[in-house]
Amino acid sequence: SQQGEEDPQALSIQEGENATMNCSYKTSINNLQWYRQNSGRGLVHLILIRSNEREKHSGRLRVTLDTSKKSSSLLITASRAADTASYFCATDRGSTLGRLYFGRGTQLTVWP
Amino acid sequence: DAGITQSPRHKVTETGTPVTLRCHQTENHRYMYWYRQDPGHGLRLIHYSYGVKDTDKGEVSDGYSVSRSKTEDFLLTLESATSSQTSVYFCAISEKQGSTNQPQHFGDGTRLSIL
Predict the structure, then answer these.
(1) How large is the average pLDDT for residues B32-57?
(2) For chain A, which residues score pLDDT lower than 50?
């Protein structure tokens, strides 16, 4: 079964606006990761946040994690057309075996 | 980009035929994974490997087998392909740093159509 559940399923914004995507999960975790997938390509890792961290930044990306609510958010600031992609969250369900459980993703479209 | 090559990139075959997909890595990573991606389901793990000759089942392993005889190669076999196995298949690799699993790196996928 899916571990992460992203919402919204689809998001459409104009260049320059911020994009916020959310992820909820059901079990304890060691870390939560966000990935991006451009059309026809494999997933690319964006950011990893550990269960004892609350916020992490990488360039225009900001990820928050609330383990009490079992939820995370990915904020992309000042979006660009090149940010158009699907975004997935993934958790390890507390496993140390390297397995990840992915959500169904959010399709982000950024219009020029 | 991580050195991951999937072959073939596209394949069309008929129901009942055997199919083998190959994942080759040049990163010497210990962990390798096979996923399938279908509309409405996201990525689902088929099988994974945590070392040479060490493999285990994922969420959707029925109808699939894997082999890993070398660190760099992870093969996924559909013994008798069915139309329900039409999908995009992704290979991924990862490593551990101490006890912490590192992010996975993905290949560009194999688009498999079974008619």
Answers:
(1) 92
(2) 1-3
Residue A52: partners with Cβ closer than 8 Å, 6 or more residues away: none
- Residue among A89, A102, A107 with most chain B CBs within 10 A, to mutate: A102
Question: Least CB-CB distance to B101: which of A41, A92, A102?
Answer: A92
Peptide bond into B103 cis (omega under 30): no
B41 close contact with A: CB closer than 8 A: yes
How far apart, in Å, are the Cα atoms of B18 and each of A37, B64, B80, B86? Answer: 29, 10, 5, 13
Indicate yes or no: CB of B104 within 8 angstroms of CB of A41. no
pLDDT in tens, B51-95: 999 999 999 999 999 999 999 999 999 999 999 999 999 999 998
Q: Which of B48, B96, B99 sits opposite A99 (nearest CB)?
A: B48
Q: Which of A21, A19, A18 is nearest to A9 (CA)?
A: A21
For A26-94, give the DSSP string: -S--SEEEEEEE-TTS-EEEEEEEETT-SEEEETTEEEEEETTTTEEEEEE-S--GGG-EEEEEEE-TT
What is the identity of the amino acid at A45? H
* DSSP 3-state of B91: strand
Contacts of B45 (CB under 8 A, 6+ apart): A99, A100, A101, B33, B34, B35, B58, B59, B60
